[in-house]
Amino acid sequence: MDWEKFMHETEENLTSFSKEIPQTAKGFGLMGQAAKSDGALSEKTKELIALGIAVATRCDSCIGFHVRSLIRLGITREELCEALEMATYMGGGLSYAFSAKALKAYDIFIVDSN
Prior knowledge:
The chain has about 110 residues and is mainly alpha-helical.
């Protein structure tokens, strides 16, 4: 998978769709801001939870968005692998395959962020 191209297309699609449903898109954005804000759990911890859910639900675009957020938040490859290890444990074979995809996305996005 070409992660850069895939995420660019996903963002274009979401932008186009958001224009059709502006109130819902605005509400979704506000919900995301509220959910990710630091509280008892840090934003990084919340993004790790989101990545685990993305792996379990096999959502490629979700994996891309949350891996990029985790890179912005300074996650290390070791931290990511441990989180993906837990997602694999909880989700079995399908999560194993999608955890591998998430690690590949990390390897691609981390190079681009430097």
